[in-house]
Amino acid sequence: MLEIENLTHIYGGGGPNEHHAIDGLDLKVADGELLCIVGPSGCGKSTLLRSIAGLISPTGGQVKVDDVLVKQTPDNLAVVFQDYSRSLFPWMSVADNVALPLRRKGFDRRKRRAAAQEALESVGLAEAGRKYPFQLSGGMQQRVAIARALAYRPTLMLMDEPFGSVDAQTREDLEDLVLEVRRLHQMTIVLITHDIDESVYVGDRVVVLSKAPAHVVGDLNVALPGPRDQITTREHPDFVHLRAEVGRLVRGHTVAH
Amino acid sequence: MSAVMGRLARALASRWLLLILLVAAWEWGTTIAGSAFFPPPSTIVTRMHAMWFSGPPERLFLTDLAVENVLPSLGRMAGGLAGGAVLGVALGLALGLSAKAYDYLDGVLQFLRAIPPPALVTVFLVVFGFGLRMQLAFIVFSIVWPVLLNTADGARSVEPLHLNTGQVFRLSRAQRISLIVLPSALPKIFAGLRLALSLSLIVTVFAELLPGTTNGIGFQLTVAYSTFNLPAMWAGILLLGILGYVLNELFLVAERRVLAWHHSAQRVEV
């Protein structure tokens, strides 16, 4: 269970470049939920994610994961960053990249390798272990980053605009990969995106943020028939209706200011 | 493929051709001038061969003189270089990891680095006396700066997302340093080491010119010009040039191996 209460964050407080990123944000995410957070560009989505991950300490309010206040990164939390080319380590082979976080779990070398290979297979990269990240396409690199998170067996996976820098076809494949991952593994997923269609297609629930300083302006359940499919789901009347509603919520606030 | 090989062959040929032309011009000029101070290269090479490379085959043709002088020079250089590299990387990492320490000490270090090492030679003589200890300390002090400052710079400019990733997956501090910071800094560390390598040859020879030395290429140079043995002096100079060139080439080969990921990744980005 992830609970965010009255979260507020101000960058450079009191200074000339003061930026109020988040203002009194409340949010609860149940175990096993796939929540998409959508909002206009620069609205503080990444700040929110970084607060949940314990990478920054918010200036106000609190984040709790399983009733424990987040001060550093909680146990069993993994993050997939948008910029795969800067989050994978270029000096390590793909398999070593995926196996890296398993050191903390006290796995020996053989067990790390086996777990990394299994995770790579689950994202469709069984053959790529010995390669280096720069030898793979962008979409494949992001799969490696997802495999790294999966091998870690998190209970909470945060994804920060994970498909923002890949082409449309790859993006659809990766969206389906997330749905597949959710089906196979028991975990809570919080996916941040600025793509309205993506949020409705992937999420069980979509939370819409206002422009900065961010707070919640909409919270919708996505009750679409499963399994989801890139063609039939997207032409389903409920999908069309939901995406319009999310779109209005996102846009409504950008126009009003 | 054959086009590439052809280009390579032509490039090599033109390089060697230029070298041969330059040496020929040198030979011709010095022979015409006939000055005792500038012996022709053929004389120098003959002297080099006689002094160092006419030994028994089982000792790789090295003469007693080579074993007594060239090897000690290389030994001092290697010892000083290893000491300076280890010290420079260790201190550089410590400095680069602490923004406060870096801010406080950066000015002091730039100041220390700017002092030409030969100017401090008296200080080293007073502290260490004549001999090997002083020579090693002097070489280490001279070469540690480029390694230290480059390492600190590299350790400071690690990609923030790499550090975030290490933080999210809760790597220990030791793991973050050895698995993330050190490899990130490696390209800059190698740049520093390359400077240190060429500097170490220079300061080794300088240390051997000092009184209290009984062997080494620098010592042979002192003996040669104090006895007006000009071909021997030129032989020493030429040997130092060749050593510097070969060591640098070997270093580049090692660097290409260790930093293969870096060069390939950069090629892809460009």
From TrEMBL, chain A:
This protein's record includes keyword Transmembrane helix: no
Keywords in alphabetical order: ATP-binding, Nucleotide-binding, Transport
Keyword Lipid biosynthesis attributed: no
Recorded GO MF terms: ATP binding; ATP hydrolysis activity
Domain ABC transporter: 2-236
Protein name: ABC transporter
The organism of origin for this protein: Nonomuraea glycinis
TrEMBL record, chain B:
Gene Ontology BP, a term: cellular response to sulfur starvation
Compartments where found: Cell membrane
Residue ranges occupied by any ABC transmembrane type-1 domain in the UniProt entry: 70-251
Cited InterPro entries: MetI-like (IPR000515), MetI-like_sf (IPR035906)
Any Pfam family the entry gives: BPD_transp_1
Membrane topology according to the record: Multi-pass membrane protein
CDD domains: TM_PBP2
GO cellular component: a single term: plasma membrane
Principal subcellular localization: membrane
Keywords: Cell membrane, Membrane, Transmembrane, Transmembrane helix, Transport
Stretches that traverse the bilayer: 77-99, 111-130, 136-158, 179-207, 227-247
Family to which this protein belongs: Belongs to the binding-protein-dependent transport system permease family.
Protein name: Nitrate ABC transporter permease
Annotated source species: Nonomuraea glycinis
Gene name, Swiss-Prot/TrEMBL: ssuC
